[in-house]
Each structure stands twice: as C-alpha cells, then as structure tokens.
Amino acid sequence: MLAASMVAFAALLLMPGQGVALRAQSAPDEIGKAVDDSASDLASEGFDFLTGEARAHDFFLFGELHGDSEVPNLLKRLWPVLWASGYRHVAAEMSPWAAEQYLRDMDGPQITTLWTRAQSEVIRSPAGGHGTDVIWGCDMEELQPQYLIREMARLNPKDAKLQRMAALTATGYQRSLASELLELLEAAQVHRDRAPNGISLRANLFATLEVGKDRAMPSSRFSAQSQRELLMKQQFVAHYRASGHWDKVLVRFGQSHLFRGYDNARGISTLGNFIAEFAVAERRSTFHVAAFGAGGQMNMNGRLIDADQRTDDPGLGVLASHARFEATVFDMRPLRPLLHRIDPAKRTAAQRNLTEWADGYDALICYRNVTPLTVGVGPSGTNQ
Description:
Blueprint: H1 2-11, H2 30-38, E1 39-41, H3 45-56, E2 59-64, H4 70-84, E3 87-92, H5 96-101, H6 117-124, E4 135-137, H7 145-155, H8 160-168, H9 178-187, H10 201-215, H11 221-243, E5 248-254, H12 271-281, E6 286-293, E7 297-300, E8 303-306, H13 314-321, E9 327-331, H14 335-340, H15 349-360, E10 363-367
Parallel strand pairs: 2-5, 2-6, 3-4, 3-5, 6-10
Antiparallel strand pairs: 1-9, 7-8, 9-10
Helix pairs in contact: 7-8, 7-10, 8-9, 9-10, 10-11, 13-15
C-alpha cells in the first residue's frame, strides 16, 4: 500500500502550469501531512510563531525577496516586536557608505539600495532616529561606487590617481572600468580616509573594485563570489565586535545568502552558515527564515521581473501547493528527519529541493502573490 501511494505521489509531483502537487489521490503521504501540519497564517499565528522564535534566539536571519512590497510591510510590523525583545541592529545587504546616508536628512547624493529611505526610518525609529548604528552596512557598494570614489578624491585633492578615478566615473560607474580603477586606487597615496558606518571607506571601495574586476570575466566569477562573501563576513564581525557583543541582530539579505550550510546551487553563498557557526562560538543561537514568491512581480531597479519561483524550484512548488493563506509560514524543522529517511539516490527533484530548503532554513514564508515595490524620489533625489 505504501509503495502504491509513493508511485501515485511521484506521478503528481509535476503538474503543467500549476507548480508542484504533493499528495497522492489514494492516501496522504507522510511528508505532505507534515507540510500541512507545519503551516500557519502569517497574518495571525504565523506571526506569533516567528516572533516567538526571534525571542528565543540571538540572530534572526531573514532571507528576503528583493523589490517587493510584502517583505518591507512584514518588517514594519516585525521590527518593533524584535526591538522590544532586545534586537538593536539590522545587518543589511548594503555598503557601510550607503548605511550612513540613511542617517542624513536627505541632504546627501541620490542613493540606490535594496531598501528605501522609508524602510530605514522604520528600523531607526525605535532608537530615536539620528546618530545610531542601528543599520550595519555589510556588503560592497553594489550600485554606485562612483560616490565613494568622489569622496576619496575630495579627501585627497592633491592625489592625481584619485582625481583620475573621479574623472573616469564622472557620469557614473561601469563594471568594465573596475580593473583600471583598482590599479589607480592601489597606486594612490591616500593620506586621508574616514570610516562611514564604522568601516574604512578606502577598504570598502577597494573590495568593491576587486569584486567588480572579477565579475567582468566568466573565468573569475567564482573568485568574485568568494571575495564578496568574505567581505560580508568581515564587516559583520567588525560591526558585531564594535557593538559590545550582546545586542541581538536581525540579518536581512537575499534568500540565497542566509542558508545554514552552503548554497552552492545559487553561487558560493556562505554568509548564513558563517553566522550560524559564529553564533555557536559566541554561545548564541540563530533562526533562519526566508520568503519566496508563488506568483506576482518584483521591481528590480525599475524593471518588473517574475516573482514566481515554483517553475525553477519544484521544492518551493511543493510548499506553494500547500499554502492555504495569502502568506503561509512553514516550520521546516519537522520535515528534516522525514526527508533524510529517503535514500538520496532515490529522491525526486522536488524532494531534493525540499531537503535543501529544510536543511538551510528553519522556516519559509510563501507569498501567493508578490507585488512590486513602488519607489519614489524625494526632494533631494534620495530614495523614499
């Protein structure tokens, strides 16, 4: 009877145009029942589940979608609860320079990040706004390194190399310039530097250009990924050490970065695993949650892209087929022993993906319909 059930289950794994179904018609399988039992509504008990886990742990790792409205709306609701539970910082997928810009009263250059200014104000509000280090920039300057170059040139007006870099990027940064810019920076005589958000401006610019140089060639993209991951880890630790070691931290990066384990399928993404191991060394603990879309669109730098991840990932399709709510929270931990009972050589594609997600994340949030983030521009050109 069990064999027949599994055959029926396998036959239903892939359904054209509908993502993935999980249950056989004849009898519910064990994994499908566990998925159903682990599901809750983010609007009510699912939110209570997440906040309860946040209270129980010290690092709350949130692997987000990018360019959607749902995640910022959730964090707007979630952050005050986390703040009351001892969370004092958000480690963010932005450069230290960009994080510093959010402390200014919209009088700096136009900045483009994965956040908006309104999102930063939500995070800073409980801390009293200005003058806090509540946002930690823990990444390279992905989108506008020309501003870092201009600042280095301003701090060192007599250095011809830095002035040349500023001239090359006067109309904006292009990745094809990264190698030349890096050579100029290496040769520059930097007499003055500063530390936006507590991190050396020159060091962050140097790392940004190193990654950009390697990204420009397919043969060195592995090196680029590895260097970026190392930079994220180094900056996270630097911020953490400066904070005094005891504050709780929300870590907000893209979903591929915060797996427990190595997410080799999506690149060399090891930040989440590093923080999990770092927490053990600090006698602290982590909880990993990610959001994914089962429909709708996201806004990526002004371009709308498909937010339905079911087609590319049958494991997420399995979860989406069991999502009873507009936003469904799945506790992935009960699935781990069930999935690992299956011989790895005999796992279906859906089971392989489900195992990766269950091992990598403690919980997943399925949004049935993702809506693109609307980004406005304020009076000084800064993102709203």
